[in-house]
Amino acid sequence: MRPGGQAQFIATPLPPETGTSLAATRAWALDRLHEPLTRADLAAHATTSVRTLTRRFHDETGLSPPQWLLHQRVIRAQELLETTDLPMDQVARLSGFATTHSLRQHLSRRTGLTPSA
């Protein structure tokens, strides 16, 4: 004890980094954008609960897992539209959209552009 009854301050080091980043799970998901992915799929890959995944995903990206996936799918569709001559239905499928209509809607909503633009 210090004078005046005050306890001694002992500095304790920060715990070691536990590797809680979801970077590996995001990379895994990027390789599978063409597949239907759920929060449960992402949580299973990250070996965490859906609730923890959702919280950590938001902390790291600022988005929920579905929002992040949609954003990445729009980016993938843009890349394919700009760099290939693939038909729209194939671009939609490779980007993870069920239909060309869905691709058009999301691309227009996110970018303000149509696929042909």
From TrEMBL:
Family matches, as InterPro entries: AraC_XylS_family_regulators (IPR050204), Homeodomain-like_sf (IPR009057), HTH_AraC (IPR018060)
Keywords: DNA-binding, Transcription, Transcription regulation
Pfam families noted in UniProt: HTH_18 (PF12833)
Any one GO molecular-function label of the UniProt entry: DNA-binding transcription factor activity
Sequence ranges assigned to domain HTH araC/xylS-type in this UniProt record: 23-117
Protein name: HTH araC/xylS-type domain-containing protein
Species: Actinacidiphila bryophytorum
Lineage: Bacteria, Bacillati, Actinomycetota, Actinomycetes, Kitasatosporales
